[in-house]
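Consider this today:
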Amino acid sequence: MIFPSLIKEKTEMKRIYYFPGCTYLRFKSEDFSVRNALKVLGFELIDVPQWTCCGALYPPTSNLVTGWAFSFRNLLNASRRGIKEILTTCPFCYRNLALVNKITREKRETCSALNELVEGEYTGDVEVLHLLQLLNDPRVLKSIEENVKRDVNIKVVPFYGCALLRPSEIAIDSPERPVLMEKILKAARYEVLDFYPTKIECCGNYLPITGHKNFVRRIYRILNHANRLGAQAIVTICTLCHYNLDAYQDEIQSTFKDFNKIPILHLGQVLSLAFGLPIDVCHFSDHKVNPYHYLKEVIK
């Protein structure tokens, strides 16, 4: 689903209200690269005023009205300001905001309880769009192709994780065979390898806290599959996936002697590179596995 009002006219910069979420503001490598890549495509991101946490993992694991109140309050806040559409990049933010909209529109009792809790009147009039949906509009895909200035020419695999594809009623793509990220990467002239079924697996989420050994094995399996395919980088859209795949590679290498480190890139970074933006936009030094050390010959 694409909202026509979010597609820019050729002669003007289109302003989009943006829900960044808590984690994206903590990771400059992702937030900064997304904002700069979208500027190249003619979009300026304007943060929704007074946004707060969407609730993260709590809402989907509970049937309590209080769990959905985090996202409900944010949608109410946007609605009161006359905002009709908001864009988000974080899969957790998208899932929670989209689910709350669905609940608001379809379950009157829950909607009434939420309005009473936050002392407002919201009926589901704010549309929620994810970055992958925006970038897959045919006009935007064409703009990506036209704005490629640096031929990075590396082999990559996309990693979707689970939050954008589940539950199916608010999934932005096929839960089993998603292709949105592949279309974007190909438009930016990357060589995309088939990473199915690993690309739709969970990264382990917060398993490092409660089941670290199982988590390390899970991450090793994901990374090693990419290595076996000959990928030079894994591309993510989720901050948590990005962190989990990147941060534990030293430990994995000490545990599994056949493992070779592999860079983890956010979609905003690969677009920024393809658009010829300065390398500093990507904040590679924030990574545990610095992509520049592995890709410097192809991203000069």
Remarks:
- Residues 148-295 form a domain with the Rossmann fold fold (CATH 3.40.50.11810).
- The chain has a mean pLDDT of 92.
